[in-house]
Amino acid sequence: EFKKNVAGAPSVDFMQGQVPGELSSFNFRNVENMGFVTFSLFGRHFNNDDKCQATLDLLQQFRNYLQYHIKCAKSALHTSMRNRVELLLQVLNRAKQELPSEKKTMSGKTFKRK
């Protein structure tokens, strides 16, 4: 797991496929398809009213923050896939052979294909 230490920030853990110890008493179904985010908060995050309010605001906004970044990543992926498809279509269009519009029969007569 990747962990980064930032002074004053709570530690955040993400677990997929296993339930955190705090939630083990609940009966979850399909745990292998679930992910859990755990925040470890300490007394310094609630020292005074301003810090307490800021901490609670950030925790409440985390879901929206995460969904926004997931949508942005999805959008970037779709954009790169569309660009790749356009590039491949250009390559295919360049590789097309132009068929002659006039054909000759065995006797030497010509006709145009429709």
Protein architecture, described:
This protein is α+β, with helices and mostly antiparallel strands. It contains one helix and four strands, in the order E-E-H-E-E. Strand 3 and strand 4 form a beta hairpin. The radius of gyration is 30 Å and the shape is elongated.
Order of helices and strands: EEHEE
Low-pLDDT stretches are none
What is the terminal separation in angstroms?
Answer: 65 Å
Mean pLDDT: 86
How does the helix and strand content classify structurally? alpha+beta
Over all CA atoms, what is the radius of gyration?
30 Å
- Tally the helices: 1
Helix content: 40-55%
Q: Largest sheet, order of strands side by side? A: 1-2
**Estimated share of beta-strand residues:** 15-25%
Total beta-strand segments:
4
Largest sheet: 2 strands, antiparallel
Subunit arrangement of the protein: single chain
Q: Secondary-structure blueprint of this entry?
A:
Blueprint: E1 11-16, E2 35-40, H1 49-94, E3 102-104, E4 110-112
Antiparallel strand pairs: 1-2, 3-4
